[in-house]
């Protein structure tokens, strides 16, 4: 609770400082860097290139998913058919809506944790209405559980698919993911858990949809967020460094890691982690071994994060060509490596945005299919 009150205080200060700085600084180049002094510690917050103001005008109450009142549909109108499997938050079933005969997927929450249920529903609803987002059909409950009902798509586990995807398939997959993300970000939402398991694929039509809003959040300048989001391998440097003012760009880093898996055809494309320190430190080592120690230190400093790098060797950044071999070279043309490098920048502000990435020459051969 104490921590929460502190957040509110800092939040207030940041907002004040933010409005002030943005008025004062309209003519300086670094108008989006804010330092807030609070008991000697300074919070550095950097605005994203796009959609920084997507949630402007919304009150704390509007942004509080816990306020949601759920309208439940008719539970007995659904028949649960086959169990497909369990995820972090629940169980998924294939099912049917009796009144319409529509095929659906029913995701049942394991326990009645209302806050996480509401979180998923709110963000799901915020991003509804786009081709690349799986549509929510209904929300149903019985006495013991709550379930979300989605239109059913023919899907193939993307985590398997990326191992065998062709160069063209890689492009289609990545392009649609970025397009979906640009839309999600334009709604002021950070997905928060981008990974192959959360992108469903129809291998015939080559159409993909983004799913799983269980870790999503609103982006509001200066509003601190819990840095415990995402799935380890896909976590960005700012998340590993536990920076609380991260933005949409954590999703791009996650896409970057997925892209590396796709083109290098390796589940763990940047192998060679030494078992040093805590888990998050091991992941930082893994990144530093590829992108260099110095850059990681610099970005930690820029965010004013106190991270001990004393047991980090001074890794030099490596050329991504190092990961290209006879088996994967057909996916790793220089355009691909260039885009990958841009997605995996340490500094979220220098990391390419989804909107800009869609214009990258890597997609020149497939872009017309989506225009
Ligand atoms: N609309 C859909 N059509 C077909 N299959 C779907 C659909 N939505 C979800 N699935 C399947 O259900 C699985 C679980 O969905 P989701 O990711 O939303 O739940 P989760 O509990 O968070 O799972 P995880 O822990 O694996 O992320 C997905 O990996 C996917 O295979
Ligand atoms: C913010 O703080 C950092 C480090 O304390 C400093 O280098 C930088 O100049 C400050 N920026 C602004 C805009 O005050
Ligand atoms: C709920 O669905 C069942 C099965 O389709 C139907 O018989 C029933 O009339 C529905 N109830 C309501 C309130 O619509
Ligand atoms: C659900 O709970 C209510 C109230 O306790 C009860 O009347 C009803 O029979 C229960 N329904 C089921 C399907 O168990
Ligand atoms: Mg999932």
Please specify the SSE layout and strand pairing.
Elements: H1 2-24, E1 33-38, E2 41-46, E3 78-86, E4 90-97, E5 102-109, H2 114-126, E6 136-141, E7 146-151, E8 156-157, H3 158-164, H4 167-186, E9 189-190, E10 199-202, E11 207-210, E12 217-218, H5 237-240, H6 249-264, H7 279-291, H8 293-302, H9 334-343, H10 354-357
Antiparallel strand pairs: 1-2, 3-4, 4-5, 5-7, 6-7, 8-10, 9-12, 10-11
Walk me through the structure.
This protein folds into two domains: 108 residues, Phosphorylase Kinase, domain 1; 215 residues, Transferase(Phosphotransferase) domain 1 (Transferase(Phosphotransferase), domain 1), CATH 1.10.510. 32% of the residues lie in helices and 17% in strands. It has a five-stranded antiparallel beta sheet with strand order 3-4-5-7-6, covered by helices on one side. It has a three-stranded antiparallel beta sheet with strand order 8-10-11. The chain has a two-stranded antiparallel sheet with strand order 1-2. Helix 4 runs antiparallel to helix 6 and helix 7 packs across helix 8. GO terms for molecular function: ATP binding; protein serine/threonine kinase activity. It is an enzyme of class 2 (transferase).
């Amino acid at each position: 609770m104490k921590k929460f009150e502190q957040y509110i205080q800092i939040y207030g200060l940041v907002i004040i400082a933010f409005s002030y700085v943005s008025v004062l600084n309209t003519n300086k180049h670094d108008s989006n860097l804010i330092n807030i002094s609070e008991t000697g510690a300074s919070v550095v917050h950097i605005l994203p290139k796009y959609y920084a103001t997507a949630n402007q005008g919304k009150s704390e109450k509007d942004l509080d998913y816990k306020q949601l009142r759920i309208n439940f549909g008719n539970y007995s109108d659904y028949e649960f058919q086959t169990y497909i499997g369990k995820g972090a938050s629940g169980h998924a079933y294939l099912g049917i809506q009796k009144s319409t005969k529509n095929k659906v997927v029913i995701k049942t929450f394991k326990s009645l944790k209302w806050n996480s249920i509401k979180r998923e529903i709110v963000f799901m609803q915020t991003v509804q209405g786009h081709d690349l987002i799986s549509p929510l059909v209904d929300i149903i409950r019985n006495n013991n559980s709550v379930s979300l009902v989605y239109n059913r798509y023919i899907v193939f586990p993307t985590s398997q698919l990326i191992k065998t995807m062709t160069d063209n398939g890689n492009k289609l997959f990545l392009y649609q993911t970025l397009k979906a993300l640009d839309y999600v970000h334009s709604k002021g939402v950070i997905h928060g858990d981008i990974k192959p398991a959360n992108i469903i694929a129809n291998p015939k039509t080559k159409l993909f949809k983004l799913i799983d809003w269980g870790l999503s959040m609103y982006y509001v300048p200066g509003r601190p967020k819990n840095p415990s989001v995402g799935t380890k391998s896909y976590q960005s440097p700012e998340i590993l460094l536990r920076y609380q003012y991260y933005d949409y760009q954590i999703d791009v880093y996650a896409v970057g890691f997925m892209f590396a898996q796709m083109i290098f055809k390796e589940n763990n494309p940047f192998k060679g982690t030494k078992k040093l320190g805590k888990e998050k430190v091991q992941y930082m080592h893994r990144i530093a071994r590829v992108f260099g120690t110095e850059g990681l230190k610099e970005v930690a400093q820029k965010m004013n994060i106190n991270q001990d790098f004393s047991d980090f060797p001074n890794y030099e950044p490596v050329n991504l060509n190092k990961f290209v071999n006879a088996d994967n070279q057909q996916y790793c043309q220089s355009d691909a490596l260039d885009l990958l490098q841009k997605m995996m920048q340490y500094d979220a502000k220098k990391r390419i945005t989804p909107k800009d990435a869609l214009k990258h020459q890597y997609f020149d051969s497939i872009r017309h299919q989506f225009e």
